[in-house]
Design a protein that fits this description.
The complex is a heterodimer of chains A (417) and B (80). Chain A has 417 residues and is an alpha+beta fold. Chain A folds into two domains: 11-254, Thiolase/Chalcone synthase (Peroxisomal Thiolase, Chain A, domain 1, 3-Layer(aba) Sandwich); 265-415, Thiolase/Chalcone synthase (Peroxisomal Thiolase, Chain A, domain 1, 3-Layer(aba) Sandwich), CATH 3.40.47.10. Chain A is 34% helix and 19% strand. Chain A is built from 14 helices and 14 strands. Chain A is globular. Chain B has helices spanning 3-17, 38-52, 67-77. With 80 residues, chain B is mainly α. Chain B has a single domain, classed as Non-ribosomal Peptide Synthetase Peptidyl Carrier Protein, Chain A (Orthogonal Bundle). Chain B is built from three helices and no strands. In chain B, helix 1 crosses helix 2 (38-52) and helix 1 (3-17) packs across helix 3. Chain B is globular, with a radius of gyration of 11 Å. In chain B, 25% of the residues are buried.
């Protein structure tokens, strides 16, 4: 079972699978990112009328039947179906030929901020309307947040380490960082890593409305997510699944795999401050960035692009701006920063995964996607957010920031190979 | 055996287990022939309860192993 090959501890990204409001499949997603397309519309998955927020970023063309057999497609949670699709796309993109030996060394770290919220909501409704005996036997397996990764391992016969991070909106980034560590320390040769969220149902929308976190710019959906702009009024909820293939550098080279980028730094901290509010000076966020750089042995001035967490909330964006200044000093004003949530909305547990993909693709193509809807500068957000138009730029290092309720902060540093 | 009940059991089975109608014979075992696992059987039993407006207690579920057995069980349960 143990392979004997040399392991230098280097880990590279060799496959990307995206199921996003900007498209299914990584190239469509990426082209729309570069073109500044908004994926935000009036909510169609449910009747939005009762809710103060009536807009979201949905994966409009996603059908579970395209990715699962009829029985599973009919009953799994949307979060599971989207993950199965993203994992399939990532595996196909990597062109890996799975052998029996490799399957023992191939793990899956896919998390979700919440889990199967659609099944949880629907079955809870059934319990109150029809009684406990009518609750589905599939409530437990389809609700638990580790099942997307569990089902991906079952469908693809991947028998290595399998864990699901649950760290709210930093879930996707934690999953990728943790999977990177698994390969780095020699516990697997390859990993599928990422995150998923499918929160657009009555209870999901009601709950985030109740938390007063979301934009109510209902009459202008495509202009609602506007990170770092003075007139931002909250985030726009999105759904997505993002899964990437990570692989030991030697294994990728030996099979002639295409390499998007190398993961070289992973920083994690906690704010230890408030359940939902960010630390006003961005202490934890700053330290997560510094740790990612430190672990990679890279000085701040080497970073060319930051994909910001930038959710478009009044409090979060200035705090992240301060955190970037704290970590990067003078270089904070020179580095290109963008928030692709301006286009994808905030996809919660998937955000760190699809935004790490953006960093990998930015490195591949030497192009930075824009922050759209940036119209009026906010004095508290005074850095270069690559407003509205994508930019060609030499990129050696790109950093992804992801922060979650609970005070979780994650930074991932990617390098051009 | 009631043809009406049989056809309704077959319809529910096709729907719940996502199998083809021609696969669902009177002699078909839900688990051995139609690919159901234990959770599928629980869900199928719940769907049969809804279809026929009956209650099937847990300790009687074991009697319902095949399509034909389900029909016989339901015939007994339905008010005459």
């Amino acid at each position: 079972m143990r392979r004997e090959s040399v392991n230098s501890g280097r880990v590279v990204i060799t496959g990307l699978g995206a199921v996003t409001p900007l498209g299914i499949g990584v190239e469509k997603f990426w082209q729309n990112c570069l073109n500044g397309v908004s994926g935000v519309h009036q909510i169609s998955l449910i009747n939005p009328e009762p809710f103060p927020t009536k807009i979201a970023a949905e994966v409009l063309d996603f059908q579970a039947e395209d990715w699962l057999d009829r029985k599973d497609a009919r009953r799994v949670d949307r979060a599971i179906a989207m993950t199965v699709a993203a994992a399939r796309l990532a595996l196909d993109d990597s062109t890996i030929q799975l052998t029996d030996e490799l399957k023992d060394e191939f793990g899956v770290f896919i998390g979700s901020g919440i889990g199967g919220l659609n099944v949880m909501h629907e079955q809870t409704r059934i319990m109150y309307e029809r009684g406990p005996s009518k609750v589905s036997p599939f409530w437990v397996p389809y609700m638990i947040a580790n099942m997307p990764g569990g089902i991906v391992s079952i469908l693809n016969d991947l028998r290595g380490p399998n864990v699901a991070a649950v760290t709210a909106c930093s879930t996707g980034a934690n999953s990728i960082g943790d999977a990177y560590h698994v390969i780095k320390r020699g516990d697997a040769t390859m990993m599928l890593a990422g995150g998923v969220e499918a929160p657009i149902n009555d209870i999901g929308v009601a709950a985030f409305c109740a938390a007063r976190a979301m934009s109510t710019r209902n009459d202008e959906p495509q202009r609602a997510s506007r990170p770092f702009d003075l007139d931002r009024d909250g985030f726009v909820m999105g759904e997505a699944a993002g899964v990437m293939v990570l692989e030991s550098y030697e294994h990728a080279i030996a099979r002639g795999a295409k390499i998007y980028a190398e993961i070289v730094g992973y920083g994690m901290t906690a704010d230890a401050y408030h359940i939902t509010g960010v630390h006003p000076e961005g202490r934890g966020a700053r330290n997560a960035m510094l740790r990612a750089l430190d672990r990679a042995g890279v000085t701040p001035d080497k970073v060319d692009y930051i994909n910001a967490h930038g959710t478009s909330t009044p409090i979060g964006d200035p705090a992240e701006t301060l955190a970037i200044k704290g970590a990067f000093g003078d270089h904070a004003h020179k580095v290109a920063i963008s928030s692709t949530k301006s286009m994808t909305g905030h996809t919660l547990g998937a955000a760190g995964a699809i935004e790490s993909m953006v960093c990998a693709l930015a490195i591949r193509d030497q192009k930075v996607p824009p922050t759209i809807n940036y119209e009026t500068p906010d004095p508290a957000c005074d850095l270069d957010y690559v407003p509205n138009v994508m930019r060609e730029l030499p990129i050696q290092y790109a950093l992804n920031n992801s922060f979650g309720f609970g005070g979780h902060n994650v930074s991932l540093l990617l390098k051009r190979v | 055996m009631s043809e009406d009940i049989l056809s309704r059991v077959r319809k529910v089975t096709v729907e719940e287990l996502s199998v083809k109608e021609e696969e669902v014979l009177e002699t078909s075992s839900f688990q051995d022939d139609l690919g159901a696992d234990s959770l599928d059987v629980v869900e199928l039993v719940m769907a049969l309860e809804d279809e026929f407006g009956i209650e099937i207690p847990d300790d009687e579920v074991g009697e319902i192993k095949t399509v034909g057995a389900a029909v016989e069980y339901i015939e007994k349960k339905l008010p005459k």
